[in-house]
C-alpha cells in the first residue's frame, strides 16, 4: 500500500511523542513526532489516514453485546458510530477530507473460547461502518485469539501491529453510551 | 396540529450513511415522516420545492456545512421560521454560539438519545 506503508525505523527516541489511546477514545494528529499506541484484546482500533493532508487518527472501542436471553436489545452500535464520527470530525478539523480517508482495522480477538465471540461482533461493526461510509479498508488484522499491540504514526499512516500475550491486554468491559454527558438537548 | 394521520415531517441532513440509517430507524419507528439529504447543498435544493415541519442537521459536511445551511435558510422567506436542530459531535461553546448566531433553534450532542430527540422535535414545532 503506497498510502499506508509499513512501519519504518523510528526516529531518535527524544523526538517521539507517545500517545496512548485507551478504550472509548478517538484522537487525531498531523504531528510527525506523534506515535499513537494501544493494546487490543476484543476491542477494535480504527486507524484512519488522509495521504494528501497527512492527517491521521485512531479510535479504540468495544461495543456492548446483549446477553443471550435479551433478544430484543440491540447490539449497541450507536456508541461505536459516535466514536467513528468523533475521529473523522477531529481529522476534518485538521484538514483531512473524508473521501480521501483510508482505513486499517485491528483487534477484535476472541480471547476466551468459552465466551460469546464479541471480538467478531466488533470487527463486523467496524467493517460495515467503513463500507457504509465508502471509506476503503486497505488492511485488516482482525479476530483470531490473540491480543495485539498497535503503534500508529498519524502523520505518515505507518502502522506496526504485533501479537502480544493476552494477559498484557487491559481488562476490557464493553462501553455503553455515557448517560449523562450526551444526547443533551439545548433549545436556544 | 399533528395527529397520527398527519405525521410530523422531519428532514435529516447528515453526510454519514450510518448516521442517516440510525436516524431513519429511530424517527420512523416513533411515527415521524423522515426525508434525508446528504449535505447542506442537497438539503437546500430539496427544500426549494418541498416542505417539512422541522430540520435536523449535522455540522461537518462537504459542499455546504450545517452553519452555511442554516444561514441560507434563514434568508429565505419560506424557511425563515422553520425549526432547525443541530445534531453534532461538536461540543465546543464556540461552535454552539456560531450555530445560535446563524439562527439554529437548538443544539443536540451525539450520541443522541432517541427519546430526548423526539421530545425536542415535538417541542420545537409548536
Structural class determined from secondary elements of chain A: alpha+beta
Which runs of chain A of at least 5 residues are low in confidence (pLDDT < 50)? 69-73
The CATH superfamily name of chain B is: Response regulator
Largest sheet of chain A: 5 strands, mixed
CATH topology of chain B: Rossmann fold
Fraction in helix of chain B:
25-40%
Q: Termini of chain A, distance in Å?
A: 48 Å
Radius of gyration of chain A: 16 Å
Describe the protein.
The complex is a heterodimer of chains A (188) and B (126). With 188 residues, chain A is an alpha+beta fold. Chain A has one domain: 2-Layer Sandwich (60s Ribosomal Protein L30, Chain: A), CATH 3.30.1330. Chain A has 2 helices and 10 strands. Chain A has helices at residues 77-93, 118-132; strands at residues 17-20, 25-29, 34-40, 44-50, 55-61, 102-107, 137-142, 147-153, 158-164, 185-187. Chain A has a 5-stranded mixed beta sheet, with helices on one face. Chain A has a 4-stranded mixed beta sheet with strand order 1-3-8-9, with no helix packed on it. Helix content of chain B is 40%, strand content 18%. A 5-stranded parallel beta sheet of chain B has the order 2-1-3-4-5, sandwiched between helices. In chain B, helix 2 (40-47) packs parallel to helix 3 (66-74). The relative contact order of chain B is 0.18. Chains A and B meet through helix 1 and strand 10 of A and helix 1, strand 5 and helix 5 of B. Strand 10 (185-187) of chain A pairs antiparallel with strand 5 of chain B.
